[in-house]
């Protein structure tokens, strides 16, 4: 099933206690698309970049069979840029610089041939733009949404309106508490699911992820790694692996949703091993299946 991804494409300047990487290809839709491309060869992107987005960047995406005809190129404009520095625990970061550039005027236009796409993934952009995307899609079988604290605090009503049209909502634990107004994640999940999305995933960084559905709660562990170089984009990479697995399922049920969480976690664990998209742009399905099997082994008990 084809996947439409709408979000940012960006250049990142990243500093961590273990090194730095300048002018690194990033952006929410970039990470999601690269991750999902290992599971589906029908990935479509809608976004905006400036003339500084070189052909080599498009080539990287095209080599993964990602369709970028929905990416607008603004001549003489500059691509969205972000700079950040991570603390030693890698869970806290300081934003050093944000330059929206052409992304400030992003007006998502979904090409006609994308408008009957079965799966729609909305990166953490303005919820009013997310709604505008949905208004251009005919009858999607599944809508997945991500967001961030900025939109929860700045446009809560628009976000809640968008959530009423969403099937799967992915956010982290601090965002869940902020949106629900409750510190308890189980209560937060109930409150948020009442807003619309029946499937909710709350990411907890190094502590794994929680999946909430009508059939109960599933807890996935985080993969124990000795070396973590850069957590940038890990959440988006998780989303790509999650929806990538679902796109190849004939039926989406609770079992497949749980598998999807583990595939998402596997992809995110690869992402943090190198800077930016470097690691997830150079994997094989054997790598991914081996990591998925390792996740299964983490909590398996012999009877």
TrEMBL record:
<keyword id="KW-0808">Transferase</keyword>
<dbReference type="Pfam" id="PF00294">
    <property type="entry name" value="PfkB"/>
</dbReference>
<dbReference type="InterPro" id="IPR011611">
    <property type="entry name" value="PfkB_dom"/>
</dbReference>
<feature type="domain" description="Carbohydrate kinase PfkB">
    <location>
        <begin position="24"/>
        <end position="278"/>
    </location>
</feature>
<protein>
    <submittedName>
        <fullName>Sugar kinase</fullName>
    </submittedName>
</protein>
<keyword id="KW-0418">Kinase</keyword>
<dbReference type="GO" id="GO:0016301">
    <property type="term" value="F:kinase activity"/>
</dbReference>
<dbReference type="GO" id="GO:0005829">
    <property type="term" value="C:cytosol"/>
</dbReference>
<dbReference type="InterPro" id="IPR002173">
    <property type="entry name" value="Carboh/pur_kinase_PfkB_CS"/>
</dbReference>
<dbReference type="InterPro" id="IPR029056">
    <property type="entry name" value="Ribokinase-like"/>
</dbReference>
């Amino acid at each position: 099933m084809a996947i439409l991804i709408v979000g940012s494409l960006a250049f990142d300047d990243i500093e961590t206690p273990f090194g730095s990487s300048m002018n690194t290809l990033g952006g929410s839709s970039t990470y999601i698309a690269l991750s999902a491309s290992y599971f589906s060869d029908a990935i479509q992107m809608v976004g905006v970049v400036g003339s500084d987005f070189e052909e080599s960047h498009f080539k990287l995406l095209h080599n993964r069979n990602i369709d970028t005809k929905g990416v607008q190129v603004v001549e003489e404009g500059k691509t969205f840029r972000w700079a950040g520095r991570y603390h030693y625990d890698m869970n806290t970061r300081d934003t050093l610089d944000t330059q929206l550039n052409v992304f400030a005027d992003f007006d998502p236009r979904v090409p006609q041939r994308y408008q009957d796409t079965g799966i729609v993934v909305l990166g953490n952009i303005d919820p009013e733009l997310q709604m505008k995307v949905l208004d251009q899609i005919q009858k999607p079988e599944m809508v997945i949404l991500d967001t961030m604290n900025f939109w929860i605090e700045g446009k809560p009503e628009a976000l809640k309106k968008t959530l009423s049209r969403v099937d799967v909502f992915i956010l982290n634990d601090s965002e869940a508490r902020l949106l629900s107004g409750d510190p308890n994640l189980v209560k937060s999940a109930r409150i948020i699911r009442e807003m619309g999305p029946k499937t909710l995933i709350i990411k907890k960084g190094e502590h794994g992820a929680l999946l909430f559905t009508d059939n109960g709660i599933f807890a996935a562990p985080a993969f124990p790694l000795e070396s973590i170089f850069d957590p940038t984009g890990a959440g988006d990479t998780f989303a790509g692996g999650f929806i990538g697995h679902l796109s190849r399922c004939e039926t989406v049920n609770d079992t497949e949703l749980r598998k999807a969480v583990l595939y998402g976690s596997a992809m995110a664990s690869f992402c943090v091993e190198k800077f930016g998209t470097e690691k997830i742009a150079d994997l094989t399905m054997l790598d991914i299946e081996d990591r998925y099997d390792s996740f299964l082994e983490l909590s398996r008990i012999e009877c």
